[in-house]
Design goal:
Elements (H helix, E strand, L loop, with lengths): L2 E4 L8 E9 L11 E5 L6 E7 L5 E8 L8 E4 L2
Parallel strand pairs: 1-2
Antiparallel strand pairs: 2-3, 3-4, 4-5, 5-6
Length: 79
């Protein structure tokens, strides 16, 4: 794990622990950092990220498919 400062341009690791207020932080997690699970490391323009934090019972997800841009974060609430 490493301390990531930019979720929009993350390193090629499966699990990312962010520093305080990284670029791309999912706002609805209501915290200043998060833990991210990232899929498809360094494989071009295809990737997915799941993020969660202590500030909310929500899980955030976003992806990119054949593009350099991430989709907007979408949120799911734990039941």
């Amino acid at each position: 794990m490493n301390n990531v400062t930019d979720l929009n341009n993350p390193p090629n690791y499966a699990i990312l622990d962010t520093k305080v207020n990284p670029i791309g932080l999912p706002s609805e997690l209501r915290s200043n950092g998060c833990l991210v699970i990232q899929h498809n490391l360094g494989k071009g323009n295809y990737a997915a990220q799941l993020a969660f934090s202590f500030g909310s019972d929500k899980i955030a997800i976003r992806r990119k498919k054949n593009t350099n841009s991430w989709t907007e974060w979408k949120y799911f609430t734990a039941q």
